[in-house]
UniProtKB/TrEMBL annotation:
<dbReference type="Pfam" id="PF02518">
    <property type="entry name" value="HATPase_c"/>
</dbReference>
<keyword id="KW-0418">Kinase</keyword>
<feature type="domain" description="HAMP">
    <location>
        <begin position="187"/>
        <end position="242"/>
    </location>
</feature>
<dbReference type="InterPro" id="IPR005467">
    <property type="entry name" value="His_kinase_dom"/>
</dbReference>
<feature type="transmembrane region" description="Helical">
    <location>
        <begin position="166"/>
        <end position="189"/>
    </location>
</feature>
<dbReference type="GO" id="GO:0016020">
    <property type="term" value="C:membrane"/>
</dbReference>
<feature type="transmembrane region" description="Helical">
    <location>
        <begin position="12"/>
        <end position="32"/>
    </location>
</feature>
<dbReference type="InterPro" id="IPR050980">
    <property type="entry name" value="2C_sensor_his_kinase"/>
</dbReference>
<protein>
    <recommendedName>
        <fullName>histidine kinase</fullName>
        <ecNumber>2.7.13.3</ecNumber>
    </recommendedName>
</protein>
<feature type="coiled-coil region">
    <location>
        <begin position="223"/>
        <end position="250"/>
    </location>
</feature>
<dbReference type="InterPro" id="IPR003660">
    <property type="entry name" value="HAMP_dom"/>
</dbReference>
<dbReference type="GO" id="GO:0005524">
    <property type="term" value="F:ATP binding"/>
</dbReference>
<keyword id="KW-0808">Transferase</keyword>
<keyword id="KW-1133">Transmembrane helix</keyword>
<feature type="domain" description="Histidine kinase">
    <location>
        <begin position="256"/>
        <end position="461"/>
    </location>
</feature>
<dbReference type="Pfam" id="PF00672">
    <property type="entry name" value="HAMP"/>
</dbReference>
<dbReference type="InterPro" id="IPR003594">
    <property type="entry name" value="HATPase_dom"/>
</dbReference>
Length: 463
């Protein structure tokens, strides 16, 4: 994070560029009506100047002036000729000997906004000089209409000069405003964001160090809230990391203890088998209880090790017939079945699914053993297909149902067991296996008439 972003990619540079662009766009929208109005004002001013020249002529004796004065009046009005129209009377008051032929007539009294804009840009981009005949009411007297014949070239030069001034002013305003916004946003946003990013990078490199935790700046806006949330998240994450390290140490210790304990339990199992053949009736009666206790201890060790060491089971998926899997499960639980126990396989012989056979067998055996150990005498297996194409495997029993405490803590390690001496890890591991398949393990129902679990597998992807 020590590298600073390239100037062309930094947030500050983008903000500066966007500010300048937006201001120039705003100025462009202002420029369009401005240049049209500038042209109209220019023409009106020339009409007013022409009217003043005509009034000067009327003030002369016999309304006659010599040729030199007339040329001076025309030069002042920058016109080839001036015509006054009063009612039906039309009078050429000032004119050169041979006025040039007009190329375009502009009536200021009838020109709308859009033709005015189009006319302004037509004048601005005109390459050759045109002679204009400008018609409109006199600014001095609305009852008098004036016609003035002028060149377009001076108008175009004035409009070009005005455009350059507008462009220069727009650039100055854009640059000045952009710099102000750049400095403000850099101070208010960019610097705090960089501080956040730098702190995140430092925390990523060494999350367990207290010094890598961000210290909130005390701002009360969204960035201040983000700093506070980041500080809380870093604190919670640091606790989880430390807890993970402790659990890893515990896991290592449990693995060593488990190894020694299993060896001891194996010896206890051999002793139990020998005691079962004892001629002493009392001793032979206690032998099965001892054997059952040893089995529970071995099962506890195995489940604990699975839970501690197995975060995500490794799967070797394959296509299989669900009915064949159920038959294997039934054969694995025969040691818990007696003469009254009944296992019913209602799965269609052609029902197929995809998954890791070993892991799925483990899940089904765990559910079946739990049911038999809770007192169920009947197990029923069924298979169906959901609307999305997934496979649903239901395991139902006629046992007494799960206690309320077990239902409330279902799938919680060391809390969700329904039988005495259980750890609740079996269901936790079973659900982890199903979720690693992309499916799930859910409790459908439980009560005095029995319990039903459902295994959901995603639909088979056909290559």
């Amino acid at each position: 994070m020590d590298e600073k972003p390239h100037i062309g990619l930094s947030l500050s540079a983008r903000l500066l560029l966007l500010t300048a662009i937006f201001i120039l766009l705003a100025e462009a929208f202002i420029y369009v009506p401005s240049i049209a109005r500038y042209r109209k004002v220019y023409l009106k001013e020339h009409m007013e100047t022409a009217h003043l020249a005509a009034l000067a002529l009327e003030a002369a004796p016999d309304q006659m002036v010599d040729e030199e004065l007339e040329n001076r009046l025309l030069k002042h009005a920058e016109a080839y000729g001036v015509v006054l129209v009063e009612g039906e009377k039309r009078m050429l008051v000032l004119s050169k000997d041979m006025p040039p032929k007009t190329n375009l007539t502009i009536d200021l009294s009838t020109e709308d906004w859009m033709p005015m804009v189009m006319g302004a840009f037509e004048t601005l981009f005109q390459q050759e000089n045109r002679v204009l005949r400008v018609v409109g009411p006199s600014p001095r007297d609305e009852n008098v209409r004036i016609e003035v014949i002028i060149d377009e070239a001076p108008l175009r030069m004035e409009m070009a000069d005005y455009s350059r001034r507008i462009l220069n002013l727009s650039l100055m305003i854009s640059l000045f405003t952009g710099v102000l916004i750049y400095v403000s946003l850099h101070w208010l946003l960019v610097r705090p964001i960089r501080r956040l990013a730098k702190n995140m990078a430092e925390f990523r490199e060494n999350p367990e160090e207290e010094s890598s935790t961000i210290v909130p700046s005390g701002r009360r806006d969204e960035l201040g809230q983000a700093e506070g949330e980041l500080q809380s998240m870093q604190g919670e994450l640091r606790k989880l990391l430390r807890q993970k390290d402790r659990l890893a140490s515990i896991g290592t210790a449990v693995a060593k203890i488990n190894h020694d304990l299993r060896n001891s339990l194996s010896k206890a199992m051999l002793m139990s088998d020998q005691l079962a053949g004892s001629e002493d009736k009392k001793v032979s009666q206690l032998a099965p209880q001892l054997s059952q206790t040893v089995d529970q201890a071995i099962d506890l060790c195995s489940q604990t090790m699975d839970y501690v060491s197995n975060s995500s089971p490794r799967l070797e998926k394959e296509l299989f017939y669900v009915g064949d899997l159920i038959e294997e499960v039934i054969s694995h639980i025969q040691d818990l079945c007696d003469e009254e126990s009944e296992t019913i396989n209602q799965v269609d012989a052609m029902a197929e699914a995809e998954g890791d056979l070993t892991q799925l067998r483990r899940v089904l055996v765990n559910l079946s053993r739990n049911a038999l150990q809770m007192g169920a005498s009947r197990l029923e297996y069924a298979c169906s297909t959901e609307e999305q194409g997934g496979c649903l495997i239901d395991v139902s029993d006629n046992g007494p149902g799960l206690p309320q405490k077990a239902q409330d803590n279902l799938f919680k390690p060391f809390e969700g067991s329904a039988r005495r001496g259980g750890t609740g890890l079996g269901l936790v591991i079973a659900r982890d296996i199903m979720r690693s398949h992309g499916g799930d393990l859910i409790l459908l129902e439980t009560g005095v008439t029995g319990t039903s679990f459902r295994l959901r597998l995603p639909r088979v992807e056909i290559a």
